[in-house]
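Worked example

This section walks through a single chain of length 233. The input is the sequence exactly as stored; nothing has been trimmed or padded.
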Amino acid sequence: MKRFGSMALMLGLVAATAATSGCGINFYAGRPSDAKRIQELTSEIERLKQQKEREKDQLEEAKDLLQQRLQQEIADQQAKLEMTERGLVITFVAEVLFDSGKAVLRPESHQALGKVVQVVQEKVSDRDIGVEGHTDNEPIKHSGWKSNWELSTARATSVIHFLEDQGINPKQLSAVGYGEHRPVASNESTEGRRKNRRVEIVILPKKLTKREAALLKEAERMGVPTGEPQLYK
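Given that input, the structure is written out below as tokens.
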């Protein structure tokens, strides 16, 4: 009887909870306080997942609206839209925005860039935006720039100045120049070099806050399902 009493006591100290995930069920056992925390984490993770899904939907809505607004530029192969892990990428070939070897925006470029500004303000005004400048591998000869690094960086900076002048919060903007070092096509052809001379405006996904990141770590440590990792990138 003493042995059975001890087993009953041990079982009485164990609290178990189950959390369903996909097609399986994970069981957790421990103190009652652990079971309560697991329930709290499950609820908070579910809210976080829903929030991240809404944020991704907002980017998709922005992409759809840009598809409409930039219809002519896309048809003329002057612009392209892509949803990537980096976020929503709006690519303009360089000659739409700049004269050869220059970093001052052409007046004609303001209309196309203005469409981007409108969609950002309507759909994703709280997002950070990165502007990336790229060139082909042709060496600088007559334009006065030291190298393609400087040219690509100056072009990206010109675009963020335009975005700021149109009302986008400068705290949400960043610029970087990659020169010729991230080509998307072969530089052996004229068309390939044209594709490589480009500016990419990247509407970024929202980063996890410190609290959200800590929440995910705690959930993983306690075995609470968090969903697909890419959801939080």
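What to look for: Helices lie at 2-12, 32-69, 71-75, 94-97, 109-123, 148-165, 190-196, 210-221.
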